[in-house]
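I have been asked to look over a protein record a colleague put together. Alongside the sequence sits a line of tokens, each denoting a local backbone shape. I have pasted the whole thing underneath without changing anything:
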Amino acid sequence: MVVANMIGAGVFTTSGYSLADLVDRRYVMLAWGIGGLIAICGAVSYGQLAQRISESGGEYLFLSRLLHPAVGFIAGWVSLLAGFTGAIAFAASAFETYAVPESVRPDWLKPGIVGIAAIVVFGVLHSVVLKTGLWTQNLIVIVKLVFLSAFVAFAFLHFPSGWDGMQVQVDAADFSIYALAATLVWISLSFSGFNAAVYVTGEVNNPKQNVPRAMLLGTTTVTLIYLALNFIFVMGATPEEISGAPDVAAVAAQAIGGNFLSVWVRIIISIAMLSSVSSMIIAGPRVYAKMASDGVFPKLFYATERDQMSVPATAIWLQVILASIVVHFSTIRSLLDYLGFTLSVSAALTVACVFWSRRAEDNRLTRVIYGVIAALYVFATIGLAVLSVIGRPQQWVGFVITIVSGLFVYFLMARFRRAD
């Protein structure tokens, strides 16, 4: 779950845009390294929260129990619109970009159709044929990791010696803290799946041990993979070729290994996008089902028991419909700005719960260590989000609309509960 959620669209689309803003490839690699450290701090902090509250529900559950039900509902609303709906649409759109490039797309195949079809297929698998869906999910993740490892090994072995593309510095680029912050907010989207395990905590054996372990090991492993991949992406072709490219991985592969490697990379990334879509369709609806069981979301979205697991079939199809709509009406770049900022704020607020939720059995030193780790995540995430908004004020628009609409729905649901 953790690896499948993390290795999604962001890592295969972000570096082209990042290089366009940062200019110097060293800054792009620095940004990915910082992003990995922040994500590891987040994984450790979410693990602490999962040890305190061992139920499914993610940010909604933690904030509802530890802060206030209204704040928890807003977090669940953010998960619905951004954390999963927007992220699924992002992954599905990236899948289509790599699987059906413009050079081979027939005139009759309209943009968005392939991405929407992928969402619907996994909606069927995870809501109707549960065991088949889970086996499919695991198989795709295994294939993805094997293919990505093979690609990294091939690329490093086939970098031409003395090739100009390996030159780290292009020009003497002026460093911009605002551009770095915006890039890190985008990169945070690539790492956002580090908390995936908390959405299914209630269905995990020995969750207090296995959920934190899964998040820490998964995040550390993916960080190393990301650093290797992005070194290849930003060094594998000339800056002019990859700057601003949405399919930066395929462009780099073309420069390193020609058409053969480029085609294989498109296949590998298409598989990676499918696993990301699949895992988020598993995780997201569990949040809405938990909200329904708490009475803050319509009862229609309750989970039902099937194959000894809780299957929120109606919530899954709500997720499928919303994600399909977003695929139809949005672009990858607009989703990057909206998702990166909105999810950063939600995750930072959740991790802040570590400060006032301490376990009695923790000694003073343990509390200090985990407090420092949580503080690093919160201040880094909020600070970067604020800096990115200064550079791109339009990011506020989607965030404000999400929060205001969530408050409206919360008070509307509260009124209906009082009427009942």
